[in-house]
TrEMBL record:
Family according to the record: Belongs to the GSP E family.
Pfam family, one: T2SSE
Name recorded for this polypeptide: Pilus assembly protein CpaF
Family matches, as InterPro entries: P-loop_NTPase, T2SS/T4SS_dom, T4SS_GSP_E_ATPase
GO molecular function: ATP hydrolysis activity
All copies of domain Bacterial type II secretion system protein E, residue ranges: 86-364
Length: 440
């Protein structure tokens, strides 16, 4: 039961969505700005606690002067919001602090959406105007040393906590600044976590573990926000601690729980194009860094050629993600990217190189319910009649329960892995299964 002296969360939320809250906050903010101008450089030396006290005192004076009908609790809510404006990130701060929020999307100053559990929802909070959005965004970008103005109207950057921000403003964004913030967990999901969350089952987890430890080359395929990076993070946890890993990303997102990792991140060029360092450049250089494994955060361009060559020339156990809707599409996309990158050989030689390089394709997807599930575990077995051959080991086929809810189910195709790398591991696994009472 809610104590009379302790307002419920519903009451708090209701006032924050009240027009009076918005009006008081906006007018008090203008008043604070005028007071800060009077203080000048002195304000810049104040601590966050001092600023919070300053806001509380000034707001109290403002409320008394204008006879605003709010109680002490409501005044404190306004003071907290104003303090976030002056020291934090305004309307974004509580969303960034919320561990359940995955993505924050701002479409102009009035539309703000967040993704929780894979489902997008519109938030009731919003910015005052487009200038308010830009002020908060520039506060985020300032420590990163990134520029955002008419001459450089697009920014993609990594946040200090490992998240990612993408901003595009006028004249490219017609309806106001567009901001996309992707948050990442401070504690990356482990394979055990993914099993408990229902991303895949124990049998698939065991095969993936064997594939990584046997140094099979793996591509994680899926659409946007399907969980590719989280799955790649989890797979990397199977890599033995004695091995040296080099990760290469456009924007660093991977957070491997491993003792020997070298993280490389591409660098965008300046406004005149100078200084650009691509993933492909980093991948070429990484081959001289004595890596045991190379992990590419996302294969999206010419770096596919270097990755295939690395997989074919002694860097077994390498991994990467790629945007594709199915395992077959994954191979088509790799072939297309290699062609765009200037592959000089024939179509057959390219397909042979892909077939020799890639051992497994792990297809992951985000369902309409927001759940992320492994949809297919497919092995690349070679090339037949100029077509890359594959065999599916597991397929996601959910069942409909009595209450109409989907029940997760992965169907085994009853096929043993074909890769020679996995042969000894698979035989040991089968022997263990037989000793435990036969295969499941």
């Amino acid at each position: 039961m809610t104590n009379a002296m302790t307002p419920s969360a519903n009451a708090t939320d209701e006032f924050e969505h009240n027009p009076l809250f918005v009006e008081l906050k906006n007018h008090a903010y203008d008043h604070l700005l005028s007071r800060i101008e009077e203080l000048g450089a002195e304000f810049g030396r104040w601590s966050q606690a001092a600023i919070a006290q300053f806001v509380t005192l000034e707001l109290d004076s403002f409320i008394r002067l204008h006879a605003v009908p709010v109680n002490e609790r409501e005044a404190q809510q306004v003071a907290n919001a104003l303090t976030r404006e002056l020291t934090g990130l305004g309307p974004l701060q509580p969303l960034l602090d919320d561990p359940h929020v995955e993505d924050i999307l701002v479409n102009g100053h009035q539309d703000l959406y967040v993704s929780r559990g894979g489902i997008l929802q519109r938030e009731t909070v919003h910015f005052r105007d487009d200038e308010h959005v830009l002020r908060i965004v520039r506060r985020i970008l300032a420590p990163l040393g990134r520029r955002l103005d008419e001459s450089s109207p697009m920014v993609d950057a990594r946040l200090p906590d490992g998240g990612r921000i993408n901003v595009i403003i006028a004249p490219l964004a017609i309806d106001g600044p567009s901001v996309s913030i992707r948050k990442f967990r401070k504690d990356p999901l482990t394979p055990r976590d993914l099993v408990q969350l229902g991303t895949f089952n124990e049998d698939i987890c065991r095969i993936l573990e064997m594939a990584v430890q046997a140094r099979c080359n793996i591509l994680v395929s899926g659409g946007t926000s399907s969980g590719k990076t989280s799955l790649l993070n989890a797979l990397a946890s199977f890599i033995p601690s004695r091995e040296r890993i080099v990760t290469i990303e456009d924007t660093a997102e991977l957070s491997l729980n491993h003792s020997h990792v070298v993280r490389l991140e591409a660098r965008p060029g300046s406004f005149d194009g100078s200084g650009h360092v691509s993933i492909r450049d980093l991948l070429v250089n990484s081959l001289r860094m004595r890596p045991d494994r190379i992990i590419v955060g996302e294969v999206r361009s010419g770096e596919v050629l270097e990755l295939l060559q690395a997989m074919n020339t002694g860097h077994d156990g390498s991994m990467g993600t790629i945007h594709a809707s199915s395992p077959r599409e994954c191979l088509y996309r790799a072939e297309m990217l290699a062609g765009f990158a200037g592959f000089q050989g024939s179509e057959v030689s390219l397909r042979r190189q892909i077939a020799n390089a890639v051992d497994f394709i792990v297809q992951i997807g985000r369902l309409s319910s927001g759940r992320r599930r492994l949809l297919s575990l497919t092995e690349v077995t070679g090339i037949t009649d100029n077509v890359i051959s594959m065999q599916e080991l597991y397929r996601y086929e959910p069942q409909i329960g009595p209450d109409g809810q989907e029940i997760d189910q992965w169907v085994s195709m009853g096929i043993s892995p074909h890769s020679p790398k996995l042969l000894a591991w698979w035989r040991a696994h089968q022997a263990q299964q037989n000793t435990a009472g036969g295969p499941r």
